Amino acid sequence: MTVTAEPTVTGDEPSGGAAADRRAGQAAGQGVRSRSQHQRRKRIVQAAAALASRGGIEAMQMRTVAERAGVALGTLYRYFPSKMDLVVAVVSEEIDLLEGSIERRPPRGGTAAERTVEVLMRATRGLMREPELAEALIRSLLLSDVKTDFSERMTNLMLRAAVGPAGGVPADDRRRVVARALSSVWTMEMIEMLRGQATAEVIQARLEISADRLLTD
Q1: What stretches of the chain show up as alpha helix (H) in DSSP?
Q2: 37-46, 125-134, 196-205: least confidently modelled range
Q3: Helix, strand, or coil here: 111?
């Protein structure tokens, strides 16, 4: 009768159960680190937004942001290599808030043009609650060399309001081109408002005319 030796388990080769436990522990540790990093990044962005809302983009000094967020300056630079990277992150945070608002309370206008203008005016009112922050964000869009998806996200928001889910609208579709153009018009109107050369009522009237002309076949 042949006797087959059982495999030997050494300290360097953990059993299947022990190895699984170790992998689970590593995954849990990575999850905790990921959450911690996300929370740290969010604190930094919120600190930057708070500073910008009181003193504009000039107030967003990297050392001041780090102190307010409670992180080391080196840590801040690991997350955001430049000041403009940080400004772009604040812009993205503002768009997140707008997207959440639109999802909770979709525009109710009877036409595509009316719904599109409602999206833009809600963005206007949201930004103008903090004029210094609004100016910082608009300036970042005009002056930053850092790539931002602001225009694309605004375009998708308007398309969703005007025609439904924007994912099915091709890049060269006339409606996407028109929505992108309206986003540019809105940005310039915001500059007029920040300079004190236009009121919200005047901007809305201009946007209504633009949207009606562009969105009506």
Answers
A1: 16-55, 62-69, 73-79, 83-104, 112-128, 131-143, 150-163, 174-194, 200-215
A2: 125-134
A3: coil
What pLDDT is stored for residue 63 in this prediction?
95
Tokens 């408002």 -> residue: 193
State the number of CA atoms in the 13 A half-sphere of 97 facing the CB. 14
Q: Is the dihedral of CA 23, 25, 31, 36 positive or negative?
A: negative
Amino acid 140 reads S
Cα 111 from chain centre:
27
Angle at 127 between CA 199 and CA 146, to 5 degrees: 120
Q: Which of 156, 10, 176, 22 is nearest to 95 (CA)?
A: 156
Burial class (CB in 10 A: 0-12, 13-18, 19+), 99: middle
More confident residue, 61 or 150: 61
Token pair in block for residue 74: 């080196």
Alpha-carbon torsion (107, 112, 116, 118), positive or negative:
negative
Of all residues in the chain, what percent carry a pLDDT higher than 90?
Answer: 32
Q: From CA 53, how far away is CA 66, in angstroms rounded?
A: 16
Residue 41 tokens, joined: 């990044």
Residue 55: other Cβ atoms inside 10 A:
14
pLDDT band with cut points at 50, 70 and 90 for residue 13: very low
If you ran DSSP here, which 8-state letter would residue 164 be given? S
